[in-house]
Design a protein that fits this description.
It comes from Chionoecetes opilio (Atlantic snow crab). By secondary structure, the chain is an alpha+beta fold. The chain has three helices and six strands.
Length: 124
């Protein structure tokens, strides 16, 4: 998985900047998150992922792939009110996802492509 994502990062210039640090991806078991600062870069990363995974006999589970968009990064020291708001938003997102039969690549809010985003990928 790490080898595949290294190839994806090399081919797509994906990543999101947090201060002076650029985060390209996070991996756990067979799940991965790829970060990008534009939808165009994210699409390039997904295309590269598809091609690199295929070479190893792996397949991206597109039905399990989800998009999330974040407009800014918050400090990990959040007040209780912010945490409650985030929990409320998460519940609303779950309700929206439950209502959607087909995943929409622009996300449930139809955000413009200039927003920072990340795709959660499940590779089988």
């Amino acid at each position: 998985m790490d080898w595949v994502l290294d190839k994806v990062v090399d081919q797509s210039d994906c990543g999101a900047s947090v201060g002076n640090t650029k985060i390209t991806d996070l991996v756990f078991a067979n799940d991965a998150v790829i970060f990008a600062e534009s939808l165009e870069v994210l699409v390039m990363a997904l295309e590269a992922l598809h091609e690199e995974a295929k070479l190893l006999g792996l397949e991206v589970s597109w039905l399990k792939t989800r998009s999330r968009f974040q407009t800014h990064v918050q400090s990990h020291f959040q007040e209780e009110e912010e945490e409650e708001q985030m929990a409320q938003v998460a519940r609303q997102e779950e309700e929206l996802e439950a209502q959607q039969e087909t995943p929409d690549p622009s996300g449930p809010w139809g955000r413009p492509s200039t927003m920072r985003g990340a795709y959660l990928l499940d590779i089988d």
